[in-house]
Design goal:
Pfam families: Glycos_transf_1. The protein contains 12 helices and 13 strands. By secondary structure, the chain is of the alpha/beta class. It has 2 domains: 171 residues, Rossmann fold; 170 residues, 3-Layer(aba) Sandwich (Rossmann fold), CATH 3.40.50.
């Protein structure tokens, strides 16, 4: 088996988000370890983007019309004449499979980046289209089990490749914590990420006298280039209104943060209140930095949070349970908080391997 020299990566954007960071890391590793420089095609281009210095060939499809955009992406992929296509995202995966059906020259590797909640019509259609892919990469153990249960015909193509986080980039200095009074949340403003219920939990804590604890939420708010609303920003404005109505002066709702590592190290603990997740980049990076974790007991989250050892798990559908978990964290004494730090870093060192991550993708894309 040999790794194709001509690889095309298809992804909506290189802006904020865990999938984007994983794509960037994989491209960097292909550059450094194999001297391969994939072509990257994006079609949902945002003002906030990753630096282009690591991308040798970047094709931006800027068609506003969904139909024109669809055919423009097909054309861009075909013009690149890749030997292998790696796609992240639902539309990207569908286009990659169509290229396999009609172009039939490239090896197609599609990637599932989230956890499915139900086997609805769209999920059924998507999985059946994956019959024509050469490999289906899944980044979480929970989604692997979902596919095995509902789409057994994909099992021969299935490859579970958990996200990679560079423990040398996201670093940890032990003993830097005295108490937990600054909690960071890194997630886009979306109902999946559960911002509204999180704000309700903070209100409960403030009412109990914990209003000295500061909360910093960073994430894509979907505003336009002028800072105005878009159809996707409605949830963000709902959160702003709720924050105001609840009088949460100790909560800061910020936009996308490019320097995640710097912001992580400013926090005493990290919270991720999502209703469901894949294999979370936020939690991956947080444990590398030795941060105590507060997160929902769903999907792959217990991989990063051992309840009572490096953090606390909660029911993300219950604001009271979320508040209780946060209260446990902010009442830890210094020694306990430092033990939680050390355990998080220990977990990271046992989970993440650059060689294992790269080798798995190389195997998936090899002819």
């Amino acid at each position: 088996m040999s790794l194709p020299k001509s690889i095309l990566c298809l992804i909506p954007s290189l802006g904020s988000g865990g999938a984007e960071r994983q794509m960037i890391q994989l491209i960097q590793l292909l550059n450094s370890e194999y001297k391969i420089h994939p072509t990257v095609v994006t079609y949902s281009n945002k003002n906030k983007d990753y630096p282009s210095d690591i991308i040798v060939t970047r094709v931006k499809v800027n068609e506003a019309s969904p139909i024109k955009r669809f055919f423009a992406i097909l054309k861009a992929v075909k013009n690149a004449q890749p030997e292998a296509i790696l796609s992240y995202g639902d539309l990207s995966n569908i286009i990659s499979v169509l290229m396999q059906l009609f172009y039939n020259k490239a090896k197609v590797v599609v990637s599932e980046r989230n956890t499915s909640l139900k086997y609805d019509m769209f999920t059924r259609l998507r999985f059946n289209l994956f019959r024509f892919a050469d490999a289906v990469v899944v980044n979480s153990n929970s989604q692997t089990e979902f596919i095995k249960q509902h789409a057994r015909f994909l099992i021969p193509k299935l490859k579970t490749i958990n996200n990679f986080t560079d423990i040398s980039k996201f670093t940890f200095a032990p003993g830097q914590i005295n108490s937990i009074s600054k909690i960071g949340i890194f997630a886009r403003y979306h109902s999946q990420k559960n911002t509204v219920r999180f704000l309700e939990a903070v209100k409960m804590l403030n009412d109990k006298g914990y209003n000295h604890v500061q909360y910093y939420w960073y994430g894509q708010n979907y505003l336009n280039a002028d800072g105005g609303p878009t159809p996707l920003s409605a949830y963000y404005f709902e959160c702003l209104e709720l924050q105001k109505n609840l009088g949460l002066a100790n909560v800061s709702l910020n936009g996308f943060e490019k320097n995640v590592g710097d912001r992580l190290n400013e926090m005493d603990a990290i919270c991720l209140p999502s209703l469901y997740e894949g294999f979370s980049n936020t939690l991956s990076e947080a444990i590398c930095c030795g941060k105590p974790i507060l997160t929902g007991n769903v999907c792959d989250n217990p991989t990063f949070c051992i309840d009572g050892e490096n953090g606390f798990l909660f029911d993300p559908f219950n604001a009271g349970d979320m508040a209780s978990a946060i209260e446990k964290a902010v009442t830890l004494n210094n020694d306990e908080a430092q033990r939680f730090q050390a355990k998080s870093r220990e977990l990271a060192e046992n989970i993440f391997s650059k060689d294992k991550f790269l080798s798995a993708y190389v195997l998936a894309m090899s002819k």
